[in-house]
Amino acid sequence: MDAFTALADPTRRRIIEMLAEGELSAGEIGERFTLSAPAISQHLKALREAGLVRVTVAGQRRIYALDPDGIDGFEQWVRRVRAFWPDRLAALEAALRKPDPGEEA
């Protein structure tokens, strides 16, 4: 699953937002939702497979954190797309400012 597909789900986006504040165990994440533990586990698996989160095992607990590499890759894509717009918007603005050939100046 790619990052965009993973983030299309509102539960997964909320998990990412929670992990942006710091590491959490799977149980701590699950406590913040009304979903079952297996459902939360599936969401965490999707986020792991998309490279957005990483997990470390501490005894019986699985601790989740954002994966900087996955988040950086997503951010780089957003920057590339965002870079497309300034030139396009400037060209649109210039075109809109040109008087219509049929109009008087």
UniProtKB/TrEMBL annotation:
It comes from the Bacteria. Residues 1-86 form the HTH arsR-type domain. The keyword ATP-binding does not apply. This is ArsR/SmtB family transcription factor. It comes from Bosea massiliensis. Gene3D superfamilies: Winged helix-like DNA-binding domain superfamily/Winged helix DNA-binding domain. SUPFAM superfamilies: Winged helix' DNA-binding domain. The keyword Metal-binding does not apply. It holds the Pfam family HTH_5. Keywords: DNA-binding, Transcription, Transcription regulation.
